[in-house]
Amino acid sequence: MVAPVCETLNDQPKVLVIDDEEAARFGVARALSQGYRVQEAEDGLKALAAIDSFQPDVIVSDINMPGMDGISLLKHVNQGAEPPLVVLITAYGSEQMAIEALRAGAHNYLAKPFELEELRLVVAGAVDKQRLIRQNRHYLKELERTLTELKESQAARVQAEKLASLGRLVAGVAHEINNPLGVLHSGCGILEVAARRIGEWCGNQPADTTSQVKEFLEVLTATASRSKAACERIHAVVTNLRQFAQLDRADMQ
Q: Global pTM?
């Protein structure tokens, strides 16, 4: 006797028995009643409705049935996303039919007449295989989820490294601009001082003597003013770059 796969009724594997002969169907269902939840169907067409509602783990079906034979039922079942495993029962001496059933995707077959213990062993094997298939599906889904999380984490790290590299680049640019900017700003100050002193000198000289100097002084003063304004604009750009690079908050972070 094969031990039951599950202990509680709700956890018991479900087996659908399909046979147009009531006596044969009853015998198979009774043999599998211990350890499995069993439901019966008298032909392939009625079995389709039972498959949707009962959702069996394993189907035990006769091949020769009116309406829809076992091979046609097998092919229809295997079109589903997570189909039950099918064990087909063949008539004595129909080895070619058994080969066709295996090629069509049957899990196994039983040739009439068969022992009930052989039936239980074949069904138990199908139940165990179905359990492994579902475990593999679960593990694959978990693996896909983990891979997705790893890809997202890797993308986030790459993005963070890109931002860090950009910050370092901006900090370097700000530093390289800031040094010559200091020289230019100092030069503007010197021009302003020179213009003021020239203006003071012109104030102590006759008007006819300093007319050309005053014109030059106006140009010099305007140039110094524009240069100073340009330096202030560049300084504002450097300040923004430094804030973007967060140089002042690096120690805090």
A: 0.57
